[in-house]
Amino acid sequence: MPTELEELVGFIAHPNPQIRLVAIENLVPYSVSDPSIFKRENLTPVKHLKFLIRDHPKIAEHALTILINLTADASVVEFVASDKKFLGIALGLLVDPKEPNANLLAMLLANMTKWDGLEDIISRKQPAPESLHSDELVLNQLMDLFVKGADGSYNKHADYDYLAYALADLSKHEEIRRFFLSEQEYDSVLPLNKIKVFTEHKSDIRRKGVANIIRNVAFDVPSHPKFLDEDQINILPYLLLPIVGNEQYDEDEMLDMLPDLQLLPPDKQRDTDNNNIQTHIETLTLLTTTREGRDLMRNVKVYPVIRETHLRVEDDGVREACERLVNVIMADEAEHGAEKAIEEEDDDDNRIVEI
């Protein structure tokens, strides 16, 4: 015989919207404290929740909140993310400029992208709202939502910050890395160039997601010349500025640094999240894979920046990342081949991995 709580779960499918609202509103806390009640009867309650994201806005809000909490479970996230019809509905709602729950939809998508099967989103298409000025490729629409959300110019209800996490998870896949590095026909812009500007954004979520996207895409070694070319991606300023504080450098060091790092204001602060600093340093290390990358970092005096970061940021992960980078850029090229051989024998914990 079902418990009172299980009976309450059953009411989320009631034909009366007022009953659905009362039931789902009271169930939100249990999606954290007792998620098993939503997994009964082969996840039937989750099926109902997926349907409710198109219900009245308040009911949809609670349904999305519960789904976000439940998709922390790998079995539930696969059940939700593998439903192509549901994915299409969610993406259609997400791009609606009047959708009141767009941020929750972005959060749910960020959870769904943790399921590796969602990489086929690379080829998914849907009509784009005229005001989005995008094309029919879903990935381009997500990019344009993310950019326009930064100033609230597209949907007054949403900033789309959590798309940073969704895009970061998707960037683990090789084909989606290539997307970030490929000029799009509809606007002639590389997607990576659209988001690199957010490495110093006020939103912690944006900064973290974008830092991980850049790092993941940098695993594509053949693209490194494009990363470093001032006329293409020119990524170095966007990696170095977040890790620089208000420290002073010797004049001979400063003169060779990138123009963006010269004459910074006295109140300049480095990123407050040490994980982001570590991620940017790991990206710099990836970009030393080629001789051209190593030479450029030496020429523009990356070492003093890393030296000061190592000195001033009291974080073991950051300091270890600094040490690995310094070992590469301060080494003689004659020694570099031997050093690489030693690095390959290091324990896996010392390696940079995709996130």
Structural overview:
- This protein is an all-alpha fold and 355 residues long.
- It is built from 21 helices and no strands.
- It has helices at residues 4-10, 17-27, 30-33, 40-52, 57-70, 74-81, 84-94, 102-112, 138-149, 163-170, 174-180, 191-195, 204-217, 224-228, 236-240, 251-256, 274-286, 291-299, 302-312, 316-329, 333-344.
- The protein is elongated and about 75 Å long.
- The two termini are 45 Å apart.
Keywords:
Protein HGH1 homolog; 355 residues; Hgh1; mainly alpha; disordered C terminus; elongated
Outline of the structure:
By secondary structure, the protein is mainly α.
What topology emerges from the helices and strands here?
Layout: H1 4-10, H2 17-27, H3 30-33, H4 40-52, H5 57-70, H6 74-81, H7 84-94, H8 102-112, H9 138-149, H10 163-170, H11 174-180, H12 191-195, H13 204-217, H14 224-228, H15 236-240, H16 251-256, H17 274-286, H18 291-299, H19 302-312, H20 316-329, H21 333-344
Domain Protein HGH1 C-terminal: 283-336
Family: Belongs to the HGH1 family.
Domain Protein HGH1 N-terminal: 94-277
